[in-house]
Design brief:
The structure is a single chain. It is built from twelve helices and seven strands. The protein has about 300 residues and is of the alpha/beta class. The chain has two domains: about 1-110, no CATH class; about 115-305, Maf protein. Helix 2 (about 10-30) runs antiparallel to helix 3 (about 35-50), helix 2 packs across helix 6 (about 90-110) and helix 9 packs across helix 10 (about 245-250). The longest helix is centred in the N-terminal third of the chain and has 20 residues, at about 10-30.
């Protein structure tokens, strides 16, 4: 996001935008106490400290279209803030108009400022998003999956993913909400997370030496434009032959109890996967290529969400 804004916003407004964006991400999702001003101003102070452009009211880039009086006001207080380490009340009040001004710039250049919300408690899905530069707001839905009973794996994961996303959607006036769900289908049987170690061992006895299809449902709800996309990605996974002792040892690690299909490709379970056919990240819990396609279909670019 910062890279995209950097070429379009004046430097002074860019820092103010970053400060406000950090405030939104840090205070709103975690429901921190305190007012906007008390939370945001450590960032405003840092912005002033790193902004040589604000040292002179004659700098064109520092004005960003602001009235000259406003720029002189900022320049006057810059040294006072840095010298005394305190934010004057007058500057506190004035910053709100600067923030609004920066958002007017964003609106003028049609820059999308949309939060990415992940309706899942899965650490693996969060890590995948972080790996590609997206820092999501994590809001697990706690949806009761036992309410949905479907025999078709694709319909099942799509329905569950949509229910998860829709459960938390009312909490956000604007944002892009992603819901996901995964199951493994082998010989007509659908496997989600195992209920206990015995069930995990029984499943691995069937899985070892065979293959299964990993279904992941993906749902994106664009609350700004009132659009919803639902898509499924399927990856075939081939499992290695395993002895009973090896299965019991793997299940004893606890890893299979946390994963759909009783294995984690990115963990110890990767040792027992011979090969896959299809999307690698889909097996971990979220298809990155499919995410890119869905964002494009909704009118976004992946780079819109880069941190």
């Amino acid at each position: 996001m910062a890279n995209q804004l950097g070429s379009r916003l004046p430097q002074s407004l860019l820092f103010l935008y970053q400060a406000y964006y950090r405030y939104l991400r840090l205070s709103v999702p975690r429901q921190l106490g305190g007012s906007t001003t008390t939370t945001i101003f450590p960032y405003i102070r840092s912005a002033l400290k790193t902004l040589p452009l604000l040292s002179s009211p004659d700098s064109e880039d520092s004005t960003g279209g602001l009235p000259a009086r406003s720029v002189k006001f900022l320049c006057f207080y810059k040294q006072r803030v840095l010298r005394r380490g305190k934010i004057p009340v007058a500057l506190t009040q004035f910053a709100h108009s600067l923030i609004l001004h920066s958002f007017n710039y964003c609106y003028y250049f049609q820059i999308k400022m949309v939060s990415f919300i992940l309706a899942s408690a899965s650490p693996a899905r969060r890590r995948l998003l972080q790996m590609v530069g997206i820092e999501p707001i994590v809001r697990p839905s706690d949806f009761d999956e036992s309410q949905i009973q479907l025999s078709n794996p694709e319909e099942l994961v799509n329905t569950l993913a949509q229910c998860k996303a829709e459960t938390i959607a009312p909490e956000f006036n604007s944002g892009l909400i992603m819901g996901c769900d995964s199951v493994l289908a082998i010989d007509g049987n659908i496997y989600g997370k195992p209920a206990n170690e015995k069930q995990a061992c029984d499943r691995w006895q069937q899985m070892q030496g065979h293959f299964g299809d990993l279904y992941t449902g993906h749902v994106l709800i664009d609350t700004c434009n009132h659009q919803t996309l639902v898509k499924c990605q399927i990856t075939r996974v081939y499992f290695a032959p395993m002895s009973r002792d090896t299965i019991q040892a793997y299940v004893a690690t606890g890893e299979p109890l946390k994963c759909a299909g009783s294995f984690a490709l990115e963990g110890r379970g990767g040792l027992f996967v011979e090969k896959i056919e299809g999307c690698h990240s889909n097996v971990i819990g979220l298809s990155l290529p499919l995410l890119r396609q869905m964002l494009t279909e909704l009118g976004y670019k992946v780079t819109d969400f880069w941190q």
